[in-house]
Amino acid sequence: MTARKHSQEPVLERRTQVREPHLYRVCLLNDDFTPMDYVVRILEEYFYKSHEEAVQIMMEVHHQGKGVCGVYPFDLAETKVTLVTADARQHQHPLRCTMEKE
Ligand code: TYC
């Protein structure tokens, strides 16, 4: 909004920029200890994947070392990383969940 000399003057111009939020990939990383069925449960519970898709992503992580669980705006991506990491630690699994800018 442009500056006005007197507060009674009407607003003549608004300059509002609407932009898409930056997006972040939330990824799972492979390790040798976290059970496969636990990773599948994480993908279903936190990323709303079907059982078939969850198994597919888990196997991709297992073979390639990393896999994308979803793409989200910053706050949502950060929340998912926090919740997944807390869940894994509670169950004493070393599972790592990370986020990276698209
Ligand atoms: N490599 C693990 C195993 O053989 C399974 C696994 C998959 C672990 C995906 C982490 O993000 C992961 N039990």
Descriptors:
102 residues; alpha+beta; Ribosomal Protein L30, Chain: A; three-stranded antiparallel β-sheet; 3 helices; elongated; binds L-tyrosinamide
| Overall mean pLDDT | 92
Over all CA atoms, what is the radius of gyration?
21 Å
User: Distance N terminus to C terminus?
Assistant: 31 Å
Report the CATH architecture of the domain at 32-95.
2-Layer Sandwich
Q: What pattern of helices and strands is seen along the backbone?
A: EHHEHE
Q: Estimate what percentage of residues fall within beta strands.
A: 15-25%
Please name the CATH topology of the domain at 32-95. Ribosomal Protein L30, Chain: A
Low-confidence stretches: 1-6
Provide a concise account of the structure shown:
The chain is of the alpha+beta class.
Structure commentary:
This protein has helices at 36-47, 51-64, 74-90; strands spanning 23-29, 66-73, 96-101. It has 102 residues and is of the alpha+beta class. The chain has a domain at 32-95: Ribosomal protein L7/L12, C-terminal domain/Adaptor protein ClpS (Ribosomal Protein L30, Chain: A, 2-Layer Sandwich), CATH 3.30.1390.10. The chain has a three-stranded antiparallel beta sheet with strand order 2-1-3. Bound molecules: L-tyrosinamide.
Write the layout of secondary structure elements.
Blueprint (H helix, E strand, L loop, with lengths): L22 E7 L6 H12 L3 H14 L1 E8 H17 L5 E6 L1
Antiparallel strand pairs: 1-2, 1-3
The structure holds L-tyrosinamide.
